[in-house]
Amino acid sequence: MALAEATARYRDQSRRVAVLKEEFAVAQDELVRKKSVSQNDFWLWENYKAGMTKRIEDAQLLLRQIGQEVVRCRENVVQRSKERKILEKLKENQATVYEHKQKQLEQKELDEITQLRRTRAMRDAVKQSTAEAAEAEKAKEQAAKKEAVEAGETSYADQVQVLKRRRQELDRQEADLKSLQANLEAKIAELKKLEVSVKKMLDEADVTKDKKVAHLVSVYANMKPQQAAQVLETLEDKLAVKILAGMNGRTAGKILSYAKAERAAVLSEKLTKLQIPFTE
After folding, report:
1. What is the pTM of this model?
2. pLDDT for 99-131, tens place per residue?
3. Hey, which of 38, 110, 177, 239 has its CA 20 to 30 A from 146?
């Protein structure tokens, strides 16, 4: 019996090591695919890399220890103590990594939306300035005509010269307005591209979230029901419900059977309100 239990634990730990390596490889691929990497991103990556390397080394060390345990068939008390340590570490690391990545995605979305609003405000300001300049020039031209009419001593030739100068000034201002309009149209085109980019990033963020949840579903589904229940009891309700909803009904039911009665009741109720059936 003791040998069978130790062998099962060895298989579980082997899967955990594979999951950690896969998670590290995915993060590394995401960094490589980035078009540009800031100093802050590089610093975060180095810290993440060091942490993941330590976690993988620790997991592999634990795997070797459990392998030795299979040979020696240690007592059941020692086996349960090691399993609790593994569960606590897995629970803490998975929750921390997931929360950190979610916060990074949310901050990036907020920055893009802020930039979009600033560009729109600048476009509105240019439109208002152009309209005010046109109104001012129109009023100036009318005042000049009125002044020329009221000054009876002004000769016809002088009036012609005044009108020519006004026409030249109007032509110059018209050219300036056309230039402003061209700049405005260019900014509008840039704004539309930015809107498309933001929408694409938001869609990609949703896909990334779905993939991460699916990854967690696979991890918890491959754990022992009692172990999975212990970890799920420490997660937020929203994340726990998503993980359970992604499993088949039999697996989710086994996990809930090991959860505390109050916690199981809350999760079951929220699964019902979610109106998402268990996968078959």
Report:
1. 0.30
2. 777 778 778 877 777 777 787 777 777 677 777
3. 177
Burial bucket for residue 155 (CB in 10 Å: 0-12, 13-18, 19+): exposed
At 50, list the tokens. 């060091």
pLDDT digits (tens, 9 = 90+) for 170-223: 888 888 888 888 888 888 888 777 777 656 655 554 555 567 788 888 888 898
Rg (CA), the chain: 34
What's the confidence (pLDDT) of residue 153?
Answer: 47
Q: What is the 3-state secondary structure (H, E, C) of the chain?
A: CHHHHHHHHHHHHHHHHHHHHHHHHHHHHHHHHCCCCCHHHHHHHHHHHHHHHHHHHHHHHHHHHHHHHHHHCCCHHHHHHHHHHHHHHHHHHHHHHHHHHHHHHHHHHHHHHHHHHHHHHHHHHHHHHHHHHHHHHHHHHHHHHHHHHHCCCCCHHHHHHHHHHHHHHHHHHHHHHHHHHHHHHHHHHHHHHHHHHHHHHHHHHHHHHHHHHHHHHHHHHCCCHHHHHHHHCCCCHHHHHHHHHCCEHHHHHHHHHHCCHHHHHHHHHHHHHHCCCCEC
pLDDT by residue (tens digit) across 5-24?
888 888 999 999 999 999 98
Domains of the chain: which residue ranges? 223-280
Return the number of other C-beta atoms located less than 10 Å from residue 200's C-beta.
Answer: 10
